[in-house]
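explain this:
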Amino acid sequence: MPRIAIRHGRLGDPGPGDPAAAAGLTVGVEEEFLLLDPATGATLPRAAAIVAADPPLPPGAKLHRELRLTQVEAATGVCTRARQLREQLVAGRRALAGSARLHGAVIASSGTPVLSGPSTSENQDGRFGDIDRVYRGMVADYEACGCHVHVGVADAETAVAVMNHLRPWLPSLLALSVNSPFDHGRDTGYGSWRMVQQSRFPGAGIPPYFPDLEAYRAEVRRLADCGALVDESMSFWLVRPSASFPTLEFRVADAASTVDEAVLQAVLSRALVRRALADLSDGVPPPEISGQVAAAALWAAARDGIDGEGVHACHARRLPAWQLVDELVAHVASTLDETGDRDLVAIVLERLRRDGSGARRQRKAAAAGLPALLATITHQA
């Protein structure tokens, strides 16, 4: 959900100058889940009770409320290895599922709900109340869920420089993650209806090029002064630097259908950051892309995911989505080798080639009826 920039303490405590963060090694994941009625599949507003139950989690991991009480977030601690991250994600899902069950709900990992409950809005104070006041009907039933990845960097200036190098690759990260084909009981025809919903917010999508940190901050101030943002701690770009700590937050992916797909997003995001750091060190300039073509590439990824054509953001032409994914993997091959993640990426990508995206799997299950679909997206303890 669009909200205040991440406080890095939610993911652990490596501070400014931490060697692992400076090397682009630390990684953490925030997974957003829907809370569903196990009988009807409609969303249930049980987040406050589930978070208050405070189920046991791995060190550094936390549960948090989201804008709507039908959603909850599980954040890992700071990790440096894919196996460690996977263990924390599994533990977080298990703890959350168990707590949800005690409150008559199940958790679902889907970018949007198949069916919403009769009312998902409530009167709120504080920051959530400010968001409701500013964005009104846009967020009254906003239950979109993402898989957010945080990668450590040395400082905010470096974060902005790295961000410039990431822009062409964000559509492929989305294409791999599409997992939200349904909205209020209808098939939207899109792989990621969540991304369509997010595109309604001012300044959403792939960030523009920024020559330096001051230019980035000036643009955020400008959007806040225009009333498009609640304040300067907020932005809707799909990758952004933390306001307070040395991290880059990737907000592009739908809620991951499986733990392995969440890990895939994490290791690819980290590899992209590490490749960008190497390019910066070598004096390689960021690729030049048109903002309009970047928007077209993101829209194509949201529509068809990995199951159709995408748009090459640099060459401004259509290509098979899998060809664009293969180009991304080739781009980060050396950094995947550095962290020992290349085999993991190959295994998960092969599974996606065989079984299709989360959106395709949801549609296949829906053809067998609502119970089959719910079994596909929900997680039990």
Observations:
- The longest strand covers residues 27-36.
- Residues 8-379 form a domain with the Creatine Kinase; Chain A, domain 2 fold (CATH 3.30.590.20).
- The mean pLDDT is 89.
